[in-house]
Structures are given as C-alpha cells and as structure tokens.
Write a structure and sequence with these properties.
Elements lengths: L5 H15 L7 H7 L4 H13 L3 E4 L5 E4 L8 H9 L27 H17 L2 H5 L11 E2 L8 E2 L2
Antiparallel strand pairs: 1-2, 3-4
Length: 160
C-alpha cells in the first residue's frame, strides 16, 4: 500500500548510518562504499536533507555530513516529508479537484473516509517513529520458522 521512493530509502540508509556513527562526520563515499547506493543520487538526497535541516554539511578534505539534531528528535515523518512529501493512499487524493475544490464523488464515495483514516494512521506512526528507533540493532520481528500462506481457508502454518 505504502511504497517509499528509492530516494527516501537511500536517505534513510544514510541517516541510520550517521545516527549509528553518532557525531562523526560521514562522507558520501563512505556510505556508498558500505551500501549499494549510487553516489551521485545519495549526494543529491543529502543536499535535500540539508535544506530540510536534518543534516549539516562539513566542507573540506575530511568533510561530509552529520545529523543536525539528535537521532531521537528526528522522525520518519520529517524524513519522508523532506524527500517526497506526505504519502497519499488513494489516487483521488492526488487528482485535481473536479470543481470548487471538491471531489464529485465525495458525498457518496464509499472509500474516502476509511482510506483517509488509514492514511492518517500511517502518517501518525511515521511522526512517532524516531531515527534512533530505526538504529536499534534488535529486529522488531524474528521468525524461526517462516509462515507460508496455504491455499486452504484455515490459518497459515509454520514450515518445518
């Protein structure tokens, strides 16, 4: 349902790397050599994050980027907004209004309200998720036995 752009993924990779290296100046070269991220695109993404005051650039031979604020005060919502704007769920949210700023289907639309609540829930979660929570090394979910859906109508069963 929600899909982040490559730019945002690369920005998140860079920011998590910087947060993990807390206070250390990190170069575009270092990040692109550590992760399979195109150097040129990464440099553009970091400039955008700098314009959003999420990172600060350091010039010179030992230059690079550092977080502008502590990782605990930078949210996923800020990062996504800086790189791609607030996410939309349905195409009707991105279409031009039909007349007078209103959607022609709005009075009878059966999906607008539920999708709007879902979008707001996702956005709320992004605004509560901090960069420091993304840095934590423990995975949120681990599966010893992957759950594979079956074609039966019953619940899924772990694979042995």
């Amino acid at each position: 349902m929600l899909q982040l752009t490559k730019r945002t993924e690369y920005g998140l990779i860079a920011l998590v790397h910087m947060a993990d290296r807390s206070g250390t100046v990190v170069s575009v070269r270092e990040i692109s050599e550590r992760y399979p991220v195109p150097r040129r695109l990464l440099a553009e993404v970091l400039k955008d994050l700098g314009r959003a005051n999420l990172v600060e650039s350091q010039r010179g031979a030992t230059g690079g980027y550092v977080l502008a604020r502590p990782a605990a005060s930078i949210t996923l919502g800020e990062i996504v907004c800086a790189l791609e704007g607030a996410p939309s769920v349905s195409s009707c949210e991105t279409l031009a209004p039909a007349r007078d700023g209103e959607c022609e289907l709005e009075p009878r639309c059966p999906i607008r309200s539920p999708l709007h609540r879902i979008r707001e829930g996702i956005w709320s979660l992004m605004e509560r998720t901090t960069l420091s929570s993304l840095v934590q090394s423990s995975p949120l979910v681990t599966l010893e036995h992957p759950v594979v859906p079956t074609r039966r109508n019953g619940p899924t069963e772990p694979q042995a």
